[in-house]
Design a protein that fits this description.
Blueprint: H1 3-10, E1 16-19, E2 23-30, E3 33-34, E4 40-42, E5 45-51, H2 60-69, H3 73-92, E6 97-99, E7 103-107, E8 113-117, E9 131-133, E10 140-142, E11 150-152, H4 155-197, H5 208-227, E12 233-240, H6 243-255, E13 261-262, E14 270-277, H7 280-292, E15 300-303
Helix pairs in contact: 2-3
Length: 305
């Protein structure tokens, strides 16, 4: 999963999001307003700050991952830890991390996290009006009687009209954008579930004896892996609440040459491991190799307590 995507998504509805042990993104919004000449309504402006001192998690990011990534709370916390460790390694190597429409994070010479905001963020959806011109109205002259002439100001009507337009500019585009994002995410999740459900484990037909021998050897290998208490680092390709879906993914990975197996259920999740290791460095090296090979899976590292 791309946590940068989730962080940006959260900032549409929250004023801040904490990345545990790294810092906090803060969104500042300047509402739409009338220009000084009162001849136009200026579009809302969004700017961002990064507070490197606020590193204690508020649970927003992990809860968002659980709800939208369909993973357990423990898996969400593990993903955030790995994400932060990877960022810090990259920062130490002089690299930076770009957050689309938000800004860039990197280390300074003192190895402190510094933030460079994006130029004039286009964070507000493009469907919002950039600027709305208002035609100024002249005061209307009325004559109540023949003795005197008075002027009735109509500036209040300009203010009311501006307020109504302001509400339309700020609410409806953002609301429509969020609704579209939600529908798209649901459609993608449904398509992925259907794809896994249709996985066929009978594509390769072998002689019955060969099948039995292969399954026996495979089961013995997996039993040794699961029985070894030192193998605590597993490269996970997917987590499921239904054992059928986990078995389907396992079969798909085996056909691609991976020594995949389903870990014993922990809570309510069946995790499909592509490989298990006794030390973290070996596991991370294998993850890089899998990614370099162009694997389509969103892999992450699961650590058995």
């Amino acid at each position: 999963m791309n946590l940068n995507y989730f962080i940006k998504d959260i900032l549409y509805t929250h004023e801040q999001v904490v990345i545990a042990e790294l810092g906090t993104f803060v969104r500042n919004t300047e509402p739409a307003k009338l220009s000084e000449n009162k001849d136009a309504i200026l579009a809302p402006k969004v700017s961002f700050q990064f507070d490197a001192n606020q590193t204690v998690s508020d649970g927003v990011l992990s809860n968002y991952l659980v709800q939208n990534g369909k993973i357990s709370p423990q898996e969400a916390e593990s993903m955030i830890i790995d994400y932060v460790l990877n960022l810090k390694k990259r920062f130490q190597n002089g690299e930076s991390e770009d957050f689309d429409q938000i800004g860039t994070l990197k280390y300074n010479e003192e190895h402190q996290v510094v933030f460079t905001p994006a130029d004039e963020s286009s964070f507000v959806p493009n469907t919002a009006l950039a600027e709305l011109k208002v035609t100024p109205l002249k005061e209307e002259e009325i004559v109540p009687d023949k003795k005197e002439t008075t002027k009735r100001p109509i500036g209040i009507w300009i203010a009311i009209a501006a307020a109504v337009i302001l509400v339309l500019v700020m609410i409806f585009p953002v609301r429509n954008y969020l609704q579209e994002r939600k529908i798209k995410a649901q459609a993608e999740a449904k398509a992925e579930a259907e794809k896994l459900a249709k996985a066929n484990v009978n594509d390769v037909v072998l002689d019955e004896k060969e099948v039995l021998e292969e399954e026996t050897a495979e089961d013995n290998s997996k039993s040794e892996t699961l029985a070894n208490p030192n193998i605590k680092f597993h490269i996970i390709a997917g987590s499921f609440k239904e054992t059928k879906n986990a078995e389907n993914l396992k079969s798909e990975l085996i056909k691609k040459g991976y020594d995949a197996f389903v870990l014993p259920i922990d809570g309510e999740w069946y995790r499909v491991s592509m490989a298990g290791f006794t030390d973290r460095q070996a596991a991370e090296a294998e993850m890089k190799k899998i990614n370099a090979d162009g694997a389509k899976y969103e892999i992450w590292l699961y650590i058995i307590p």
